[in-house]
Automatic annotation (TrEMBL):
The lineage of its organism: Bacteria, Pseudomonadati, Pseudomonadota, Gammaproteobacteria, Enterobacterales. Keywords: Lyase, Signal. GO terms for molecular function: lyase activity. One of its GO terms (cellular component) is periplasmic space. This is Poly(Beta-D-mannuronate) lyase. SUPFAM superfamilies: Chondroitin AC/alginate lyase. Residues 1-22 form the signal peptide. It holds the Pfam family Alginate_lyase. It comes from the Bacteria. InterPro entries: Alginate_lyase_dom, Chondroitin_lyas. Residues 60-299 form the Alginate lyase domain.
C-alpha cells in the first residue's frame, strides 16, 4: 500500500529536521520535537497579548514565608501579597510564552510563533532578569523564569516545521540572553552546603538542562547533572528527602515539588545517552514511588514529621503534571494511568507547558 501524501510529507520533514540538528550534540526528548498540528484557521483573529514590562531591576523580592520558623512552612499573607505584586510581570511573562507555544503546537498557526518571538526578543533586548539577585527569592525567580522560557523556546528550535526559519536574528538574540541567564543561574546554585541543597537547586538544575539544549552548552548540561546526582544521594533508603522533611506540614507537598525537575532532568539526560536513573540504587524510583503511593494518604510523611500533611496542593492539577513524564521513565500501573487520564490535559509552565502533548502520545503507545 502506497503511503499517503501526508505521511510522506511528515517523513520528509522529520528527515530534514534530523539533518538540521545533526551537528547538535544535545537534543530534547522526542516529544519536544513534534511537528505542530495543522489546524490553522486564517479567519481566526490572533491577538498577541501586550508584552509585560521587562523586569530590569535588582531581583529583590519578599518571601511568602517571611517570619516563619526554620520549617519555612507557614504562609505570611501580607508578604505573599507583596511577593505576587512584585513579581507579577515575571510570572505573566512565563504564562504568556507558555500559552503561545501551546497554541502554536495545537494549531500550527505561525502567528503564535511571531508572538513568542516578539515577546522574548523584547525581554532579551532589554536585558531582563540579568540584574543582581539581592536575596534567595530573587535567585529563585530567575531560575524559574529561565526554566519556563527555555522549555518553551526549545520546542520551536527543534520542531521539524522550522518555525523560527524567518527569525534568525531574533533567535540569536534570545539564545544569547537565555545563555546569559543560565550563566548567572549556574553561579548562584553551585557548590551549596548539602543542608541547603533542596528543591530550589533541583529547579535550577532543570533550568540549566533545558537551556543547555537550547544553547548547545555542554557545561550547563554537566552542571545540571552534578546537581541531579547530589539530589539522588540525598534520597534515603525509604525514599525521603531529609531537607524536604524539614518543611513539616508541607513535607509531602515539597517532595512532590522536588521530584518534578528531577524527572525532567532524567528524561533529557537519557535523550542524550546518559542514564541517571540508577544513581544511588535507583533513588529516583524510590522517591517517586513513595510520593505516588501517598497521593491518597500521605501517612508516611505524617509519621516522619509528626504532623498532619497539608494536601491543598493536590487541588491544582499542574502539581501532578510531572506524572506524564514519570511514565516515560517508569512503567506505570493501571491505577496510575487511570488517574493521569482523568486529569488530562496536564500542563505545567515551568516544565514545558502542555505535558500531555509532550508525553502522552508515547505514554499511550502511539509513538
Amino acid at each position: 500500500m502506497v503511503p499517503c501524501k501526508a505521511v510522506l510529507m511528515f517523513l520528509l520533514s522529520f528527515v530534514l529536521s534530523v539533518a538540521a540538528h545533526a551537528a547538535d550534540s544535545l537534543h530534547p526528548p522526542s516529544g519536544f520535537m513534534q511537528p505542530p498540528a495543522h489546524r490553522v484557521d486564517a479567519a481566526k483573529t490572533v491577538n498577541c497579548p501586550a508584552v509585560p514590562t521587562p523586569f530590569t531591576g535588582t531581583l529583590d523580592f519578599r518571601s511568602k514565608y517571611e517570619g516563619s520558623d526554620s520549617a519555612r512552612a507557614t504562609l505570611n499573607p501580607q508578604a505573599e501579597a507583596a511577593f505576587r505584586d512584585q513579581t507579577q510581570n515575571i510570572t505573566a511573562m512565563e504564562s504568556l510564552v507558555s500559552k503561545q507555544v501551546i497554541a502554536w503546537a495545537r494549531s500550527g498557526d505561525p502567528r503564535y510563533v511571531a508572538c513568542v518571538v516578539n515577546t522574548l526578543s523584547a525581554w532579551a533586548n532589554a536585558g531582563a532578569l540579568t540584574g543582581a539577585a539581592a536575596n534567595h527569592t530573587g535567585k529563585s525567580l530567575r531560575k524559574w523564569a529561565l526554566a519556563s522560557f527555555s522549555s518553551a523556546w526549545l520546542q520551536l528550535v527543534f520542531s521539524p516545521a522550522h518555525p523560527l526559519a524567518a527569525y534568525a536574528a531574533q533567535q540569536e538574540t534570545v539564545t544569547r540572553w537565555l545563555s546569559q541567564l543560565a550563566t548567572l543561574t549556574a553561579s548562584e546554585w553551585r557548590d551549596l552546603p548539602l543542608d541547603k541543597v533542596n528543591n530550589h537547586s533541583y529547579w535550577a538544575a532543570w533550568a540549566l538542562m533545558s537551556t543547555a539544549v537550547v544553547t548547545q552548552r555542554q557545561d550547563l548540561f554537566d552542571s545540571s547533572l552534578a546537581i541531579y546526582r547530589t539530589a539522588m544521594q540525598q534520597v534515603d533508603a525509604q525514599g525521603f528527602l531529609p531537607n524536604e522533611l524539614r518543611r513539616r506540614q508541607r513535607a509531602f507537598s515539597y517532595h512532590n515539588y522536588a521530584i518534578q525537575p528531577l524527572v525532567m532532568i532524567a528524561l533529557f539526560a537519557r535523550a542524550n545517552g546518559v542514564d541517571v536513573t540508577a544513581e544511588n540504587n535507583q533513588a529516583l524510583q524510590r522517591l517517586g514511588a513513595k510520593i505516588i503511593a501517598s497521593l491518597d494518604d500521605p501517612a508516611p510523611y505524617a509519621q516522619q514529621t509528626g504532623v498532619t500533611q497539608d494536601r491543598a496542593f493536590l487541588q491544582h492539577t499542574t502539581n501532578l503534571a510531572w506524572l506524564e513524564a514519570w511514565c516515560q521513565l517508569q512503567r506505570c500501573d493501571t491505577a496510575l494511568n487511570q488517574r493521569i487520564t482523568a486529569l488530562r490535559p496536564l500542563q505545567n509552565t515551568r516544565m514545558g507547558g502542555d505535558m500531555t502533548h509532550l508525553f502522552a502520545a508515547k505514554h499511550d503507545g502511539h509513538d
